[in-house]
Design goal:
Elements: E1 6-10, H1 14-26, E2 30-34, H2 37-42, E3 49-53, H3 58-69, E4 75-80, H4 84-93, E5 97-101, H5 105-122, H6 125-137, H7 141-151, H8 156-163, H9 167-181, H10 186-195
Parallel strand pairs: 1-2, 1-3, 3-4, 4-5
Helix pairs in contact: 3-6, 6-10, 7-8, 7-9, 7-10, 8-9
Pfam family, one: FleQ
GO molecular function: DNA binding
Domain Response regulatory: 6-116
């Protein structure tokens, strides 16, 4: 329950940010408000839960930023009158919960507690998956295909045959792929592919 003592609020609307900060502070929760993700990136917190206003691409951008910092915070998205489709998309993007705003202090604290419990039960698995996916997303389509081949245990020659390219070209893609993934060895790349659910 320690995580809840620090809430990282990301919302470009100054009025709403102030209102949420006030609601949470009165509930004894320390709030670090940020206007946007670049502002958060300049003062990266040590721990906490992120409450982010759900705008197009916001969760993806936040996850990319977390991957760069090598740190995972549970993400709770919120917006006014969210539709089911929007909530589903936010959860698929990596949020662990969704809150409709406005919300009472009690409901908000309750939602945060539940989300934190869920985040703790997920452990680092979600972090690894999110970071692996963020890394894999940096790859070109061809590099991803090469990674798939490597993860399936194929040699450069066999990957080349499968993709109709030369083994030398496979080698180049493989080197670029390892570099972008931040992998020192092929085994690292395979682990990342598994964590990103590229292979089962």
């Amino acid at each position: 329950m320690d995580l809840i003592s620090n809430l990282i609020l990301i919302d470009s609307d100054m009025r709403r940010r102030a209102a949420i900060s006030h609601v949470l502070s009165s509930g004894g929760i320390h709030v670090e408000p940020f206007e946007n993700i670049p502002e958060l990136a300049m003062a990266w917190p040590r721990s906490g839960v992120v409450l982010i206003h759900d705008q197009a691409g916001a969760i993806d951008e936040l996850i990319e930023s977390m991957a760069q910092h090598g740190e995972w915070f549970p993400i709770i998205a919120f917006s006014e009158e969210p539709g089911a489709q929007r909530i589903v998309q936010a959860i698929l993007d990596g949020a662990i919960d969704y809150i409709a705003w406005p919300i009472s202090p009690e409901e908000l604290t309750d939602s945060l507690s539940k989300a934190i419990t869920r985040a703790e039960s997920m452990g680092n698995a979600k972090l690894r998956e999110v970071m692996a996916r963020a890394r894999v997303d940096r790859l070109t389509r061809r590099e991803r295909e090469v990674l798939g081949g490597v993860a399936s245990g194929l040699s450069n020659r066999l990957i080349g045959e499968k993709l109709s390219i030369s083994p030398r070209t496979v080698e180049i893609h493989r080197a670029n792929m390892l570099n972008k993934l931040g992998a020192n060895h092929t085994s690292d790349a395979i682990r990342i592919a598994i964590e990103a659910s590229l292979v089962n």
